[in-house]
Design brief:
Number of strands: 0
Helix content: over 70%
Strand content: under 5%
Largest sheet: none
Order of helices and strands: HHHHHHHHHHHHHH
Structural class: mainly alpha
């Protein structure tokens, strides 16, 4: 029987004619995917409040992202080398890291760091609510995802919960046009990255090396952006370095959980990570930045959980 794509990528070729990644471990149950989704979402969601705290202490958004991806990439490479040795086909891994780093880290994280400092961590978290919808649409168009009502319904449930949170924050006041554009640009880049990794994830490469390649690929792209940015975006004050250090640890842990989940899930399931990041951003914003915690958080969370449960069900 052909494996269901929601549980993992079946062997064979992608629509682009490239060899799809094989799953190196036995197919895990839904419980493992739940734990990986939660771990990755919490770790990646921490970047939103940490970025705002660093900005308040003199670290610009571009500098915050660049320092964190360089340091976390080196840390992941060291872990990968100690645990698994050097990776095979390093040039292929470098190409994967450059493209996935642009779509998954450089573009969305820079926009998110700026948006968090401009409009708040809770508002920036809302940008992570649209990737599932865009990923599902792109996956169906590319033939990666079959058109099933359960998939559409699951994304709709998650989106309804996320938009409920969005409405609660939008009612608090107007936002600038730049903030709205950033809010749309972040999910577009993430959705493109989800689809790219679904097709071109290198097989047999440990999660540490995949995370290192993605982070270091993003750093190469961010370096010229940092050098051309104004001081408000590229400034670096020593007072904000502790927040950068915490982000390095969170990013490294999140990358390992992220790629372990990537091997076990389709692009649409991966895109649900955005909902967890959005929830984490709202909660961390309340705990660390004293941002208001809306009453809609509990019912919105229930809708998102229902959507993720539904997307994992067999048709």
């Amino acid at each position: 029987m052909k494996p269901d794509p929601i549980d993992g990528h079946p062997p064979g070729r992608s629509p682009h004619g490239t060899q799809r990644s094989s799953v190196p471990h036995p197919l895990p149950g839904a419980g493992v995917r739940w734990m990986l989704l939660l771990a990755a979402g919490l770790a990646l969601g921490a970047a939103l409040p940490l970025g705002k705290l660093a900005a308040a202490d003199g670290v610009g958004p571009v500098a915050f992202v660049l320092l964190s991806v360089v340091a976390s990439g080196l840390l992941l490479a060291l872990l990968g080398w100690c645990r698994h040795g050097l990776p095979a086909r390093p040039w292929r891994l470098a190409l994967f890291g450059t493209v996935s780093g642009l779509l998954g880290l450089a573009a969305p994280n820079t926009l998110a760091a700026w948006l968090s400092s401009e409009a708040g961590a809770s508002f920036a978290a809302l940008a992570y609510t649209l990737p599932p919808l865009l990923t599902l649409a792109g996956g169906m168009a590319a033939g990666l995802e079959p058109p099933r009502w359960s998939r559409v319904a699951s994304v709709g449930l998650g989106l309804a919960g996320a938009l409920w949170l969005a409405w609660a924050h939008m009612e608090a006041g107007a936002v600038s046009l730049g903030a709205i554009l950033a809010l749309m640009g972040i999910p577009a880049a993430i959705a493109a990255g989800n689809l790219y990794r679904a097709c071109f994830l290198p097989s047999g490469v440990p999660a540490e090396w995949l995370g290192a390649a993605m982070a270091l690929g993003a750093s190469v792209l961010l370096l010229p952006v940092w050098s051309w940015s104004p001081p408000s975006m590229a400034g670096l004050d020593a007072g904000g370095l502790p927040w950068v250090g915490l982000q390095v640890l969170a990013a490294a842990a999140g990358a390992i959980a992220f790629f372990e989940l990537q091997r076990r899930a389709s692009a649409v399931v991966m895109s649900f990570l955005g909902y967890v990041v959005a929830l984490a951003g709202v909660v961390f914003g309340a705990l660390l930045l004293d941002e208001s915690l809306p009453w809609q958080l509990a019912p919105a969370t229930a809708l998102i959980v229902a959507g993720f449960w539904l997307v994992q069900r067999k048709p």
